């Protein structure tokens, strides 16, 4: 774990090794006990394509499957 300090203008400087690993754009997420920095991809569409690269179903097939599962969970 690395400790960092805000400067007098409220800026936070991340160590070089973290910037090289995660980039330089983040979403700041407020949690009940602190904050979390979530990296923002340089190309969000490319990141989504990579994330779902192994999915063989179409969007419509995924929607239909989701509907069926929701109806099954809801019961009669």
Automatic annotation (TrEMBL):
<dbReference type="InterPro" id="IPR007159">
    <property type="entry name" value="SpoVT-AbrB_dom"/>
</dbReference>
<keyword id="KW-0238">DNA-binding</keyword>
<dbReference type="GO" id="GO:0003677">
    <property type="term" value="F:DNA binding"/>
</dbReference>
<feature type="domain" description="SpoVT-AbrB">
    <location>
        <begin position="1"/>
        <end position="42"/>
    </location>
</feature>
<protein>
    <submittedName>
        <fullName>AbrB/MazE/SpoVT family DNA-binding domain-containing protein</fullName>
    </submittedName>
</protein>
<dbReference type="InterPro" id="IPR038619">
    <property type="entry name" value="MraZ_sf"/>
</dbReference>
<dbReference type="InterPro" id="IPR037914">
    <property type="entry name" value="SpoVT-AbrB_sf"/>
</dbReference>
